[in-house]
Structures are given as structure tokens and as C-alpha cells.
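User: Please run a holo structure prediction.
Assistant: Happy to. Please share the sequence and the ligand.
User: Here you go; the ligand is S-adenosylmethionine.
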Amino acid sequence: MERQEIQKIKLVPTEDGTSTFFNQSLQEHYHSLSGSYTESMHVYIESGLRFLAQSQITVFEVGFGSGLNALLTLIESLTRSLKIHYFTIEKYPVTEELWTKFNLPAHIEQYLNYFITLHKSPWDKDVQITGNFVLHKILGDWTQYEIQEEIDLVYYDAFSYDKQPEMWAQERFEMICRKMRPGGVLTTYAAKGVIKNNLRQAGFSVWRLPGAPGKRHMVRAIKI
Ligand SMILES: C[S@@+](CC[C@H](N)C(=O)[O-])C[C@H]1O[C@@H](n2cnc3c(N)ncnc32)[C@H](O)[C@@H]1O
């Protein structure tokens, strides 16, 4: 997959009024067209962050993309006084020209400055965004990456298995598992059989949950 190819990205609206991006090379949307904010809240915040019920959490996100998951996590850290260390990896960052056009829902517009800061923060180092939120964006390829830290929660937000099966390999889930304590949580919008099977083989118990609008199911996996 050529870097130039995957960077053919355009902005598109979703049904809840929030934007998403569309990768023209892979023909993949970054979120569900039924609502990007709604999906991120359901899959990652409600089914992951709130489910974990800890006040100090190390998060690892696969695919920084629009920065929406990162922003929603930062907002949760402010409203619920959570201490978050947020790691996120991205191979193909979106350009400033694109992310500045990203439409947030009106009720979180007040956090726009944080959205800008998340995008403008330098790569490959810890950046203190608020007293409670440290961001660490990794510019790299997930398929080659070894997590260094102990992590509590993973937002597995890669493009689909059909387009990028290598992102969902059992070996990727095994590496995550080694970096988690028992009880660690991974959530993803995807619920394909092969993904659930790879998670189980890697050492997770796998729970199929109702999906966000437009998707029947999602997955929550818990390290045994
Ligand atoms: C479904 S989108 C993620 C959406 C994102 N979490 C958000 O909140 O907007 C998948 C992301 O994975 C990135 N990606 C694709 N291949 C990758 C790779 N090999 N390593 C790291 N990131 C990759 C894409 O560029 C894209 O940003």
C-alpha cells in the first residue's frame, strides 16, 4: 500500500451532523455514516472507557485518524476527573487543511481548542494537554509496532478486515495481551468471526454487544 495512495482522503458528513473522512484509495470510511460521534461514543467511550470504571487509565488507540476518539476521551477526563495517558498510532495523518474542516457536534464545540491542540501536538513524545490528560501520538505502522507500556484499554479502530486483514492478525492481539493486566479491555466496532476468533486465540474472552446505529454488533474483549 503506497503512502500517496492512502492519502487520498476526503471529508464527508454523517447522519448525526458530525464529519468523518473517506479514504479513496481503500474505499473506507473512518466511521459509520449513521453518525461518527454516535459511533465513537457507543463503541469506545460507553463500551470501553466507562465500562472499565477506573480513574487512572492508559489507553492505546489503533488509528488516530480524525482525532475524534481522542477528543471524546479528553472530554470524559475533564467531566469525570479521570487521569488518562493516551497513546495512539497513525501511519497516514490527515492534513491540517482537512482536519480544520471537521465538523464537531454543537454540544462539544466548546472543546474545539482541544481538538486543534490534539492535532497540532508533536509526534512521538508525551504532551501534557490538561492536568489530567497526556497525549502520545506515534507516527508509525501498527503492523510493525511493539507497545512499550502497560495498558488498560484499547480502542481498536483500524480499517475493516476486508481491506486490511493484517491489522487484525492474531499476533497483534497477542502483543496487546502481553501488555495488559487481567481485566484489561479492548473494544472495536468490528464483529467479524475471524476477528473474534483471533482475539480468543490471543487470550481474550470475547463479548458481542449491540452495535452503534447502522451496525448490528460490536465487540468487547477482556483479557482473561
Ligand atoms: C477507522 S480509521 C480510525 C478513526 C479514528 N480512530 C478516529 O477517531 O477518527 C482507521 C485509521 O487507521 C489508520 N491506519 C491505516 N493503516 C495503518 C497502519 N498500518 N498503521 C497505523 N495506522 C493505520 C488510517 O490512516 C486511519 O486513520
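Confidence is low (pLDDT under 50) at residues 1-6.
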